[in-house]
Q: What sequence folds into this?
């Protein structure tokens, strides 16, 4: 039996099912609300997505977005934003984009890049040509631009950003120890959390990338009954 004080979770593929919200997501919110345990979504989605989540799901008060690039919070109906990246790095990314578009004039940024501050994204659907994907990765590497893939995007950014750095910063502000918390994830961009977080759970669809993970979650769920939000709900029911 655990007494988790906070639950952290990735969004796409972990709280969503088949690329959409399902009733299970609402069951998770209901269970955590009943137990009075806050949920902090830790996602590669944009700052504007953080705003959307806070304004549509009243149970949520904090969302970590852009892979740890910013924290969006709601308090007394005021929404605040904490940028986790130095302004110089945000500007370097803006300048780099001009070079990127010169090199890859046909590659579009994801539509939600308009709502991004500390990173940009390209839809993985637009990068199904493996040679082009590797060419882009090499270009980012050669320009000292960091990158990672989520379930849906290739994200890239300047500066030191990770889901774990942002979660650690958040926990220090809340005066919480990470051993009192649990994290759920399913993809490569959750790796920093799997590496450094004491209690981490991979939902069963993590099997698609498990061999590419250098650091694996402490608990790995298996079976179709533990895909995405089903795995999150099953684990919480057993462990709260
Ligand atoms: Mg994911």
A:
């Amino acid at each position: 039996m655990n007494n988790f004080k906070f639950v952290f979770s990735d969004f796409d593929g972990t709280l969503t099912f088949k690329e959409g919200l399902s009733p299970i997501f609402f069951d998770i919110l209901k269970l955590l609300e009943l137990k009075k345990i806050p949920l902090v979504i830790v996602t590669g989605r944009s700052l504007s997505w953080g705003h959307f989540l806070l304004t549509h799901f009243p149970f949520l008060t904090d969302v970590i977005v852009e892979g740890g690039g910013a924290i969006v919070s709601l308090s007394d109906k005021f929404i605040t934003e904490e940028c986790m990246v130095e302004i110089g790095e945000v500007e370097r990314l803006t300048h780099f984009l001009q070079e990127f578009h010169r090199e890859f004039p046909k590659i579009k940024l994801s539509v939600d890049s308009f709502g991004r501050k500390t990173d940009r994204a390209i839809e993985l659907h637009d990068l199904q040509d493996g040679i082009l994907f590797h060419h882009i990765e090499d270009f980012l590497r050669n320009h000292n631009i960091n990158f990672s893939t989520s379930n849906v995007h290739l994200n890239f950014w300047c500066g030191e950003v990770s889901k774990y750095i942002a979660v650690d910063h958040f926990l220090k502000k809340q005066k919480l120890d990470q051993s009192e918390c649990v994290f759920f994830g399913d993809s490569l961009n959750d790796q920093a959390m799997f590496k450094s977080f004491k209690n981490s759970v991979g939902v069963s669809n993590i099997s698609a990338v498990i061999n590419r993970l250098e650091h694996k979650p402490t608990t790995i769920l298996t079976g179709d009954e533990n895909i995405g939000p089903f795995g999150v709900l099953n684990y919480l029911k057993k462990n709260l």
User: Anything to note?
Assistant: Residues 10, 12-14, 150-151, 186-187 surround magnesium ion (CB under 6 Å). The helical segments are 23-35, 47-56, 87-103, 130-142, 163-174, 191-196, 228-239. The CA atoms of residues 9 and 184 lie 5 Å apart.
